[in-house]
Specification:
Blueprint (H helix, E strand, L loop, with lengths): L7 H15 L3 H18 L10 H5 L20 H11 L12 E3 L8 E2 L2 E7 L2 E5 L12
Antiparallel strand pairs: 1-4, 2-3, 3-4
């Protein structure tokens, strides 16, 4: 059962985003990016208070994803990528992104905070960041 509203087109869109943002970090890296995307749809807080669909999340501006500006984002979703997207849409969560709303790829170590958000951990090339419960309870209560 899906934890966010979706259809096959939106699932493929999320799959394309996951691949474009984290294919170099393997399947787990892609799942972590998917967790961030699902969390943004669920969040209803901070920069994401008007985000209700995968499409709104992917194309959010400002604050969206750099990958949508790159040609490789527009490649057709592979079935393997769609299966990964379906996992996070069903609510599977992976550490350190289970409640993360942000990630980025630093040149060096992950900072302890990023724009006031707490570092929840690193996976390969990406650092993940979470809001406080007071700022965004919805990501803590699913």
């Amino acid at each position: 059962m899906a934890v966010i509203p979706t259809n096959s087109e939106q699932t493929r869109l999320l799959a394309r985003l996951m691949r474009a943002e984290a294919e170099g970090d393997g399947e787990m890296g892609m799942l972590l990016v998917g967790n961030v995307g699902v969390n943004r749809v669920l969040a209803d807080c901070l920069d994401f208070d008007d985000i209700r669909t995968i499409e709104q999340m992917v194309y959010q501006s400002p604050g969206g994803f750099e990958a949508v500006q790159k040609s490789y984002f527009y490649q057709k979703a592979r079935e393997r990528d769609v299966r990964l997207a379906e996992k996070v849409i069903r609510g599977l969560q992976y550490r350190p992104a289970e409640i993360s709303l942000w990630f980025y790829r630093p040149a060096g170590d992950c900072p302890p905070t990023w724009y006031g958000q707490i570092n929840s951990g690193r996976y390969k090339s990406h650092c993940f960041f979470i809001p406080t419960y007071q700022e965004c309870p919805n990501v803590y209560t699913r």
